[in-house]
Amino acid sequence: MTPSTLDTDWTVVAGEESFEGGATREVSVAGLVKARVSQQAYLIVWQRVDRSDSVRYPWCLYQNAFGRPRPGLHPAPVRRRTSRSKQKMKTTYTAKPADIEHKWFVVDAEGMILGRLATEVARIIRGKHKAMFTPHMDTGDNVIVINASKVKVSGRKAEQKNYFRHTGYMGHELYTPFATMLAKHPERVIEKAVFGMLPKTALGRQKLRLKLRVYSGAVHPHGAQQPETITFAKAGAK
């Protein structure tokens, strides 16, 4: 086979290339076949391939005996990437003040475990029960807790749990047992448990803490807000 597009005298026989004139040497083409190629003619063919892009070369210059393209002679496919300007960027949803609606809920703490009740109340105050939850926005609802004096704790916490307080003077640490706190100030038991689960930021101190109202009895003065009664299945006593 002799191509008409090139002036070099060469033939192709069973996947081996042999050029007339000059010394020959063995080379490896893509690690698949070995061909005896004239070093001088081999360079001439490479130069002609690089200089002329419009010449239509025969099949033997593009593929070897195994039907795979030869390195350097076959142009690599061009990968076209989509421009970033045409791609639609995904943005994170942020709640706007006009879209936020604050509701009121009332929870009966009678017979409920303190820790389990506090986690559910803190979740509602923070707004994590809504799809529009935004960490830096006040998307939570107001919670009213009644019958705080009838809350329960698991294990021996009623005997072992203490509340720490410091007067500011050296050595003036004060520890209040759980039973004493529940008898004198039952609303503080739930407040301390819920406040410990809220973020210690400006949003938590200035907004979220004000959304909790705790009363030791079954009566509360927030009837004008028309609160909805809510119960927690996992917060009941075991």
General description of the model:
There is one protein chain. This protein has 7 helices and 10 strands. A hairpin with a 3-residue loop joins β3 and β4. The longest helix has 13 residues, at 39-51. The chain is of the alpha/beta class. The chain has 2 domains: 10-62, no CATH class; 100-235, Ribosomal protein L13 (Ribosomal Protein L13p, Chain: A, Alpha-Beta Complex), CATH 3.90.1180. α3 crosses α6 (186-195) and α5 (178-184) packs across α6. The N and C termini lie far apart (91 Å). The strands form 4 sheets. Strands 9-6-5-10 form a 4-stranded parallel sheet, with helices on one face. The chain has a two-stranded antiparallel sheet with strand order 1-2. Strands 3-4 form a two-stranded antiparallel sheet.
Short description:
The chain has 238 residues and is α/β, with parallel strands linked by helices.
Distance between the termini: 91 Å
CATH superfamily of the largest domain: Ribosomal protein L13
Oligomer class: single chain
How many individual β-strands? 10
Class by alpha and beta content: alpha/beta
Q: Report the principal-axis shape.
A: globular
CATH architecture of the largest domain: Alpha-Beta Complex
Question: Any idea what the radius of gyration is?
Answer: 41 Å
Helical content, roughly?
10-25%
Largest pleated sheet = 4 strands, parallel
Q: Segments where pLDDT lies below 50 for 5+ residues?
A: 1-67
Strand content: 15-25%
Task: State the CATH class of the largest domain.
Answer: Alpha Beta
Mean pLDDT metric: 76
What is the overall number of helices?
Answer: 7
